[in-house]
Structure formats: C-alpha cells, structure tokens
C-alpha cells in the first residue's frame, strides 16, 4: 500500500551521510490522500523487481482494498492512476563520484486496467532511484493507513527519510509549499496561514500517528520567514507500528499451536524462551495425543513444569498433530505464499467482516492466530483457497 508498503506493501529502508542521499527525491505534493497511499502500495508491490522488470502488475480488487476504495469503483481508481501519471518526481543529488545529478520524471510512466489487473511501469531512471535505499525510503503500510490528512502523510514521508540524520535540513518555503501541494495559492504565501492550516495540524498528526516525532524550526530574513526544517527523532511509544506484520508469525508453528489451545501470548513466549521450541513441541505433541484429557492447558502446564517425558508412557508413538494444528499450519502457509500487498488486503477484508469488538481486538492483536476467530478464519481461508482445508475435521 508504508508505507511501500511495511505489509506489504509494508517494509522500511533508510540512511544518511554528508552526501545528499536520503530523501533526494521530491514528489509533488498535489496528491490526494488516497493517491499518495496508492503510490506507496504500487511501489511496495513492485519493489523486489523494480530493476529487473519494466512492467508490474497487481490485482485491481486487492489494490482497491489496500487503499480503501470501493472495489467496484473503477472510476475513482482510474482518476487516481491518472493523477500519478501526471505527477512529477524530481531529484537533485550527488552521485557516487561526487558529480551533481538533476533529473525529473513522471511518477508512473503508464498505467492500465485490463481483466481485473492493474499494470503499470516506472521510467528506468526513476526506478533506479526508488530502488536505492540510500536515495529513497519505503513507507510502512501499517503506519500509512493511520493517516487521515494528505498534508500529514506528505510531511511524514518527507521527514521519515531523514530519521537517521535527525533533521531534514533547511528547505526554502517555496519548496516546502510544493511538497505539501499548496504552491500557487495566494492564501498560503502568508506564513501565518501556512503555519496555522498546514504545518501545525500536520505536525500534530505525525506525532500522534506515526513512529517519528517532528519539531519545526524556521529561519528568517528580517521579519520574514524564508526557510523551514524539521528536527526528527523516533517515537518510542509507536515504534511497534514499524514492525512487519509477519513478526508474530516469526515465532513459528509451535507458538501458533499454543495460542490455538488458549495459551496467552505472554505465557506462550515465556515457555518457548524457558524450555526451547523443540521441548515445547515434544510436550505439545504428547499432550495432544492423550485421550480423555479434561484440561489440555492444565495437562500441558504440568508436562512442561514437571518435565514429563514421552518415552515414559506406554504408548509406542506420539500421535500426529491435531486437525486444529494442521488447519492452522495450512492457513499460515497460504498467508506466507501471498505477496505483502495481498496479505494486507486479506487482513483488511477479514477484519471488515467482524462486528464484535472483542473479536476485532483479538484479530488486531494476534492476526490469523486469533483464538477467538479461529472458526471464522478457517471459513474465510476455505473460501479464499478452495481445497486448502480439505480432509480436516475438527472435533
């Protein structure tokens, strides 16, 4: 979609030095909030093959879900794509040999919709710049989707790329107005109006919404403000938003099986840390193979804390993982096979079907391993991937 994105689209690349690397690309700010989000989603979708392929594709329905469009509103999507093709990206920087390089390109060289697929491309020169983490930083979609103001998202994008240098450096006000998309407006030629209507609201939303904190500073000639810069530091309270959505899945299938049994997130992590994944899996397999166990959680706790051994039991072998665990394994494999953009859209689509606040909160916290939504998740993926859960019967 970060925002891109983060999720998907989502990822994050940075750096800064004496040479003018990070944020060397400036994109005209005359984009709507949805167009700006669309631009980030398209970039994240194309990023891995940005240099090796000249054309990129994404399912139009997935794209609409990622951006928040009605999936049937193709006219709005067409209008937004047209806006990106008409938007200018400009760079002015030093190359590796210290030579000055200036360039300009449309943000998209073309885009088309056909057969439910959006195809698009970047100019070769722009693709090279966008793919270089020293020049351009992707925005995490988990952060991007929280923004409600186009000015705030534009400010965040242009500040985030300097997070490691701590400051944007001084921008002439004319450049800042262009980045915010308000150049050419007589009203915003007055700094008082620019500050009240653009700078202060945008700074407030960035600091409240994102993983960075920004502080504006101005420089004057006489009594007239002529330049502005933003001090930047990480926002520790919202740094978690910069974690990839696959972070929980990184804990593995054993963690997922524990959560399916109703083990709390904190306890599951503690057991894995204390006993190791291999030992926990051994005890989990053992407990799930037992018959007529009234409390699986209680028995597993005793097995771990009492260090029961599987070989001490009369049964010759451990039963295979339960149907519930196998179902979850297949679902997580299906999720992993999706692109970051598709994964983000899948989550948005499923979350939109949850009307109960407790279930929504549990899904937001645990994703596809949400205990409260396990049955709904299975039904959702059964429809998404026919045959995925074939042969599994939950008791």
TrEMBL record:
Ranges in a coiled coil: none
A UniProt-annotated Pfam family: Rep3_N
GO biological process: DNA replication initiation
Classification via InterPro entries: Initiator_Rep_WH1, WH-like_DNA-bd_sf, WH_DNA-bd_sf
GO molecular function: DNA-directed DNA polymerase activity
Residue ranges crossing the lipid bilayer per the database entry: none
Domain of life according to the entry: Bacteria
Gene3D superfamilies registered for this protein in UniProt: Winged helix-like DNA-binding domain superfamily/Winged helix DNA-binding domain
Domain Initiator Rep protein WH1: 18-159
Family: Belongs to the initiator RepB protein family.
Descriptive protein name: RepB family plasmid replication initiator protein
